Amino acid sequence: MINKLHDSVDEALADIPDGATVMIGGFGQAGQPIELIDGLIRHGATDLTIVNNNAGNGEFGLALLIKSGFVRKIICSFPRQVDSQIFDERYRAGLIELEVVPQGNLAERIRAAGAGIGGFFSPTGFGTLLAEGKETRTIDGKNYVLESPIHADFSLIKAHAADPMGNLVFRKTARNFGPIMATAAKTTIVQVTDVVALGALDPENIITPGIYVNRIVQISQGATA
Amino acid sequence: MINKLHDSVDEALADIPDGATVMIGGFGQAGQPIELIDGLIRHGATDLTIVNNNAGNGEFGLALLIKSGFVRKIICSFPRQVDSQIFDERYRAGLIELEVVPQGNLAERIRAAGAGIGGFFSPTGFGTLLAEGKETRTIDGKNYVLESPIHADFSLIKAHAADPMGNLVFRKTARNFGPIMATAAKTTIVQVTDVVALGALDPENIITPGIYVNRIVQISQGATA
Amino acid sequence: MSNENPLTRAEMAQRVAADIPYGSVVNLGIGIPTSVSNYLTPEQDVILHTENGMLGMGPEAHGDEIDNDLINAGKIPVTELPGASYFHHADSFAMMRGGHLDIAVLGAFQVSAAGDLANWHTGAEDAIPAVGGAMDLAVGAKNVFVMMELTTKKGESKLVDHLTYPVTGLACVTRVYTEVAVFDIDTVSGASGTPRVTVTAMFGDTTLASLRDLTGIPLVDGTTNSPTKGIS
Amino acid sequence: MSNENPLTRAEMAQRVAADIPYGSVVNLGIGIPTSVSNYLTPEQDVILHTENGMLGMGPEAHGDEIDNDLINAGKIPVTELPGASYFHHADSFAMMRGGHLDIAVLGAFQVSAAGDLANWHTGAEDAIPAVGGAMDLAVGAKNVFVMMELTTKKGESKLVDHLTYPVTGLACVTRVYTEVAVFDIDTVSGASGTPRVTVTAMFGDTTLASLRDLTGIPLVDGTTNSPTKGIS
């Protein structure tokens, strides 16, 4: 029987190479796969391109990964926050490259990668600094910017429960980028709170079909990395 | 309290004008809103453009609508079937216009309309008769065709259950085009088997949020139009 | 411009809340716009959208209600109301971009007479750019309401002929609520080169002359009409 | 070409089924390819995708199992297996187009030496065009297996140098199963102008010479290698 469950975070992340593009789920803390990120820091792959909505909060998770110096570039919509001091410092020191993308274009570009779309015309950002140098087009009297898919080598996401085939369900607004990032990477690694038996998830309610999931690691609730 | 429930099919369809573009859900019989289609025939709006995966089966539902002569044009992926005799006859007699679209492009064009995308590059159909006259582009060594969104005035779909706000759940493969067609029309009309109280649907499991639904009509299981 | 009796921020939020039609689907931007939710009544049946994947958002969560998996766009724990639904980020922004939200209420640095919005970047050389969902909301919502003070600390009008701050979205703002007046912007005319800004309400001792003087815009007097104009 | 001991259709389906690697996600086209499912073993843990919105499709439904809301792409009632999931049409074709299916097994009118596929339209003047999901599967699946008789009723090869039927997809077919032989197509080379077709298995009294003669293609002999070549 197909079983994608791995014993440890470290084992699940072992083949992430230097220079990889890694998508990391989460919107702020909700859905952020903290234990996988901590594992990525231990793993030590360098020269990473990270895709996330933010650029880290406080002194944990993505912020710590940025602090590690392993991140060459970050693609995100909203780096600057009240508690983004780690990113802010490295950015001002010229130690990290930043691509700011409007949040909806970020989400749609990730979806496009997973859906085999070569590019799409989005109205968002037309006439702004973030569309500079991009192809534009007027379609039926409305202005659009051509946006490209964002592909990843790995996606690290957090879900609520998985079955052994990798079918996933999420919890509330922690769903956010998880389902689309799972589709856009060559290898998707998921940390989950619960692992349930095959058949225990209602087929009508599965949010991410197992086809998009390669490896599952269970992290007990309240566990520390 | 918001309540989108209507008393009758006829009342729910009353404002569909001649010349409207109407999306109709379903893949074959599964998800086909038979009672709404029968209502549309009674309603009698003419010169319709219909969007559906097929062009009717047998002598009921969409096939009957086509037989009525109210359909000027059909946009679909697979008109010719063993039991598509009504469409076949009218098509060969030059009485109905046909736009054949690869099924995935059809689905993505409907989604694009609902998602505010002005156009997208699809690899499907490149180099084929169905891409003739369309703009093409090579992106990262792969060939794509530019596809446009398909918007509708009305969508008629079938769901399993709705709450009064129009949140919907579907059943098995009857889900098919329902959720995307609901997003692509100015007005979406849904026939459902069950109406449940507000709060009875788990927010994690709602497939179509009520924002995409304008009118609900309950059709008891086993009812005839 | 001096005004001895401007609206307080709470009064502005109250005013915006009162103008939202029954059953609207609304996104309230981070910051001051969020306070509008305090003045929405249950009878209005307004449905709140949050960009991070939810319709039917309820009030801020307190005490035992707090669930770190249930937050709003400002990352503050919130609650869910009956009829709520969750969806992923691409679906959330498809909803926005596809024109399915009735109203977005946003803050602003500047709004132009053509309805252009500047609210994401000060333009300062050393500022770290961060846009979030601002550009998506600007172009996506059917109506964009801006809530802002009419003047900067230096006394310059933030309702301007042309933006001097970086653009968030062009011809997208349909109404501007300030502490001294409410302005309706006809973006359709604006897009065709003939912007039209109508003053629909004035507060305290504000006069149309003083507003014209401050903004330099040929404001149309709409205060004799009903105080709350319909939205599309 | 005469062959006294070709494979039967059932044997072809059996052969295809045996070649599908463990745990693959597979879409079986309408018609003969559907019969491949009859020969998949539980130990293979193959997951079947159906374009109308399902992964984990089980065997055809009979008697009380029949549920008109649960059908396959050929509109035949089927069953669901543990671990199944349902999704809407845009998600289903995103899965396909995005390269997430390992194998699509399709029928064909013709396949070219470059891996071009013709299976949707006879090209007849009066034919009603109908494409369904054929073009999406052709470009989307990582591997496209074709099952067809090698010759038409008139005895012409359906494996051809260049298609004469309307194209379904270019450079997409990776393997062709016929009643007399199995052909692997190197579409990467094909795309760069040097198509390479390798015969990996022959059945009955088929010879490489007879296949070269029939097809007019400079077929490479791969029958000395292991009978089942790996897939990407």
What does this structure look like?
The complex is a heterotetramer, with two copies of chain A (225 residues) and two copies of chain C (232 residues). Chain A has six helices and twelve strands. Chain A has 225 residues and is of the alpha/beta class. Chain A has a single domain, classed as 3-Layer(aba) Sandwich (Glutaconate Coenzyme A-transferase), CATH 3.40.1080.10. In chain A, strands 1, 2, 3, 4, 5, 9, 10, 11 and 12 form a nine-stranded mixed β-sheet that branches. Chain A has a three-stranded antiparallel β-sheet with strand order 6-8-7. The radius of gyration of chain A is 18 Å and the shape is globular. Chain A starts with a strand and ends in a 7-residue tail after the last strand. The relative contact order of chain A is 0.19. In chain C, helix 2 packs across helix 3. Chain C contains five helices and 13 strands. Chain C has one domain: 3-Layer(aba) Sandwich (Glutaconate Coenzyme A-transferase), CATH 3.40.1080.10. The model of chain C has no long low-confidence stretch (mean pLDDT 92). Chain C is an alpha/beta fold and 232 residues long. Chain C is globular. The longest helix of chain C is centred in the first third of the chain and has 11 residues. Chains in contact: A-B, A-C, A-D, B-C, B-D. Chains B and D meet through helix 4, helix 5 and helix 6 of B and helix 2 and helix 3 of D. Strand 6 of chain A pairs antiparallel with strand 6 of chain B, so a sheet runs across the interface.
